């Protein structure tokens, strides 16, 4: 199989600080792959390397079949990139921004009119093409930025926290657009902090402290990464129960989720024991991606300590 992206021991250091540490992965064409991790995990640095913007310190990679170390300029011509800051000209109209980016990507003039029209239709802004970008809400600016990143019809697009700072409604609408793209065969790499967005990805890359913790589908991560029986517990002052519950022999892990506790038991037989101890009936639940991420992060911390 020809992969959209492959990396082998890809590493980036800034002085003595390792931002990305021996990243090895493969991403198939036409997939939505979510890069998930805390701030400073190395997600943006990894993407900037794959875009050919940052030179790797060590390791190798291919992007759309091109060698990252030898053909970075060719890679740049075949990909789209959208940063969380959008990089739009607010004193230009929506259509003028699209035309400007078409020029940057050297789109032939005879193709520009049709391609700009196609992008306006994709992001649902055809009727507003003459509006100044500066007058748009963050959600609509986000759509314009996506259209600009796609103006050259790339086979692969990188979206670096594209939904940061926009409303939940705009986030959902934007991810619908991303899924439309993937359905046409475009490979989408998206960094996100939002678990509901991660759930809609085909593959999840979990990164922490620059290291790959897991790469799999959301469903596989939830079924394979957490060993035990997960229950939800609603108790008063949930925070105060955390340390105490984790000391119980039948509890593997206990984490706080809002006002609720997620408790990982060895098996369903321990539910009665937990209920007696807390005075509250636990509810069986399926682990979430947040549970997976917390579990992976805890495992990594234990490895560092050991």
SSE layout:
Layout: E1 5-14, E2 17-27, E3 32-36, H1 43-50, E4 58-63, E5 66-67, H2 72-78, E6 79-82, H3 94-104, H4 109-122, H5 138-150, E7 156-160, H6 168-183, E8 187-192, H7 195-198, E9 203-208, E10 211-216, H8 218-224, E11 229-233, H9 238-246, E12 251-257, E13 260-265, H10 271-278, E14 283-284, H11 289-305
Parallel strand pairs: 3-8, 3-9, 6-7, 7-8
Antiparallel strand pairs: 1-2, 1-4, 4-5, 9-10, 11-13, 11-14, 12-13
Helix pairs in contact: 3-4, 3-5, 4-5
Q: Can you walk through the features of this model?
A:
There is one protein chain. With 306 residues, the chain is α/β, with parallel strands linked by helices. It has two domains: 5-222, 3-Layer(aba) Sandwich (Rossmann fold), CATH 3.40.50; 227-286, 2-Layer Sandwich (Alpha-Beta Plaits), CATH 3.30.70. 37% of the residues lie in helices and 26% in strands. It is built from eleven helices and 14 strands. The strands form three sheets. The chain has a six-stranded mixed sheet, sandwiched between helices. A four-stranded antiparallel sheet has the order 2-1-4-5, covered by helices on one side. It has a four-stranded antiparallel sheet with strand order 12-13-11-14, sandwiched between helices. α3 (94-104) packs across α4 (109-122), α3 (94-104) runs parallel beside α5 and α4 runs antiparallel to α5 (138-150). The mean pLDDT is 91.
